[in-house]
Write a structure and sequence with these properties.
elongated, 5-stranded parallel beta sheet, alpha/beta, 187 residues, Rossmann fold
């Protein structure tokens, strides 16, 4: 069976919403994830769920994805996960031979995935942006909190290298360290 769209990252809410939205419009939608109980698989609008045995965003996943696209003939490939989007961007030319990719062209993507560049564009358009403090290490959190105050949002400056952004180390560990340092300034 041929599909209008293959939606990756079927375990994410936004992928489920995508499957539903496209399905309601009469499009034939398949979804893929690396575990079998992904929410999008249970949607009445998901005509077929595919479980990929490789880890998300890896070269092994890429090989399986290419085979899957060849097999199902999806016209459009849609992804929601930063790691998958990074993989698609790296191999866009290869994947575009098999399906259209639902991502902006590379110049726009380079801005969209980089917080500093995105905020610079916003400033140039006269859009207000939140106060910021740029730090690469968890031990810098006390200074950042003193600088901008609480509440604060802790994010990597650039999305797209998967769950472990090299610039920050393991994000969950960095966040835990951030919260530990934030405690004295909560009053």
């Amino acid at each position: 069976m041929k599909f209008d769209a293959l939606v990756l990252d079927a375990g994410l809410r936004q992928s489920l919403a995508t499957v539903r939205s496209l399905g309601r419009r009469g499009l034939s939608v398949a979804a893929a994830e690396n575990f079998s109980d992904a929410p999008a698989f249970s949607s009445r609008w998901c005509r077929r769920g595919f479980v990929c045995p490789a880890a998300c965003g890896t070269d092994a996943y890429l090989i399986i994805l290419e085979q899957l696209l060849e097999r199902v003939g999806a016209r459009v490939l849609i992804s929601s996960h930063d790691g998958m989007i990074a993989l698609i961007r790296r191999h866009r030319a290869r994947l575009e031979k098999r399906a259209r990719i639902a991502l902006a062209k590379e110049p726009a993507m380079a801005i969209a995935v980089n917080k500093e560049r995105t905020l610079a564009v916003a400033r140039s358009l006269g859009i207000r942006v939140p106060r910021q403090s740029h730090h690469k290490l968890g031990r810098d959190v006390p200074a950042a909190i003193k600088e901008i105050g609480l509440p604060a949002v802790v994010n990597p400056a650039s999305h797209g290298s998967g769950r472990n952004n090299r610039e920050y180390g393991s994000f969950p560990n960095w966040l835990a360290l951030s919260m530990r340092h934030a405690a004295p300034w909560r009053n």
